[in-house]
Amino acid sequence: MRFSKPHFLYEKFMDKQSTQKYSATNYLLYLLSKRDYSEQELHRKLKLKEYSAEEIEQAIETAKAHNWLSDERFCQTFIRYRAQQGVGPRRLKQELKMKGVADWLISQCLEVAEAEEGLDWFELAEQTFEKKRPRVWDLKAKQKMWRFMVSRGFYQDHFSHLLNQDYDEDE
Questions:
Q1: How many angstroms separate the CA atoms of 125 and 51, rounded?
Q2: pLDDT digits (tens, 9 = 90+) for 15-73
């Protein structure tokens, strides 16, 4: 089998074309149609698709101008979603930092969630604690629950009063 052009050059050309089938803006819209993303997440995803830096910046600026992309909106929905899953404020801050949201915006969104949406970390910690609490309540169970609650991102103030109760009397 003979090729008019070297086969390896043809494959390289076709690979480059297939990774950039759509414009950066269209791919960005496709991603945003599924869920909200932070600006840094979208930047990372577009970079993985091998779009140029200019195309990425232009697509992100277009999305911001049309209010398709908002780190504040992403932060608020992420906090609401993860809080419903029983995740505490410490872990939320860490996850949002990893997604590229600014510290000041994280603090502002947490305050808004607590004040306007009525998010109560003590109540959420209690619900999460009760779902996981073992039947046998001894020192080993208390240590296990302490590690679980800390890994879920709650501060000790949110759940320490729950560890001091005697649950063996209830049953």
A1: 43
A2: 555 456 788 999 999 999 999 999 999 999 999 999 999 999 999 999 999 999 999 99
C-alpha–C-alpha distance, residues 66 and 54, integer Å: 18
What single-letter DSSP state applies at residue 68?
S
Contact of 126 with 165, CB cutoff 8 Å: no
pLDDT of residue 19: 54
Phi-psi region of 35 (alpha: psi -120 to 50; beta: other; left: phi over 0): beta
Burial of residue 148, with CB atoms counted within 10 A of its CB: 0-12 exposed, 13-18 middle, 19 or more buried: middle
Mean of all residue pLDDT scores within the chain: 86
- Rg of the chain (C-alpha set): 24
The predicted model scores a pTM of: 0.79
Rounded Cα–Cα distance for residues 90 and 92 (Å): 5
Please list, residue by residue across 77-94, b when 16 or more beta carbons sit within 10 angstroms of its beta carbon and e when fewer do: ebbeebbeebbbbbebbe
